[in-house]
Specification:
Distance between the termini: 35 Å
Shape: globular
Structural class: alpha/beta
Helix content: 25-40%
Strand content: 15-25%
Number of helices: 11
Length: 331
Amino acid sequence: MQKMLRALATGGAALALALTATGCGGGTVGETNDGKKTGDATSGAKITVDTAQGEVSLDKPAVKVVTLEWTYAEELVAIGLPPIGNADNKGYGTWITAEGAALPAGVADVGSRNEPSLEKIKALQPDLIVIDNDRSKANLKQLQAIAPVLSFTYTTQPQLATMKKNFTELAKAVGKEDKAAEVNARIDAKAADLKGRLEKAGKGGLKYALAQGFTANGAASIRMLADGAIAPQVLNLAGLKNGWKGQADAWGMTTVGIEGLTQVEKDATFLYVAADNDNPFTGDLAGNAVWKGLPFVKNDKVLALDPGTWLFGGPLSAQHLLDETGKALKV
């Protein structure tokens, strides 16, 4: 099951982009200039949400939301409106353990992220469905027949700014835009706090490499995260420097075997995420001659992060990554 979850995670934790949208005009966020809430029943105004499939209009804020991608479930939890249905609750619970990110009891599981059950979704009678544009595009019209659909692309660069923008648009759809702004701001605040603690400890600008390890087809497989991935973009806010420059895919990942780790810059600290029951760094690789000869191994600079540190998630996962990195670096 763990291997299957990891395979699914590669395809769609979906990681050139639009900058975070900011409000214009005299009103506060979520209000018109006359002080009425946008989308509020008293104003008669529609809510317009910017998505990968163009603008989507809602008559009022959605309340019953189904999510088909973990990031958007995490974001709804973060603003206090958890989904009524979500794809692959077990996988979500395995990979996303950030404080405050747990799905509450009663959230219906509507199947896998790649093949959700349209029947289960329809039975929930949602006001809104939220999908990853790449993963769920094939089902788009069928989903639109059930409820309005917000489709987001995760991998548009820079991914951190994309995540914040998509989060803001989703929050607008459920009338929680102000709350999303608060949650987004915590990422920058945590990064600034970590940067200060690193500098105080004499570790400012520390060079790192970030990896996710697992077993595939009986061999160690390692995802190295380049600066195009959201996780390094979060760590770089704290003044850390990425020591991995490998050729990356759209998610910002380079998948390598043990020989590929020789390309990690020699003075880097190796940070990694791996499941307790599938950790190649403490398992199969531990006795490997190439592994033992790597500078970060010889210099005792291999640091494990919480296995539930999701490297392709939303704002709570970003904060968790900062917390776990500070803990690993003992600052």
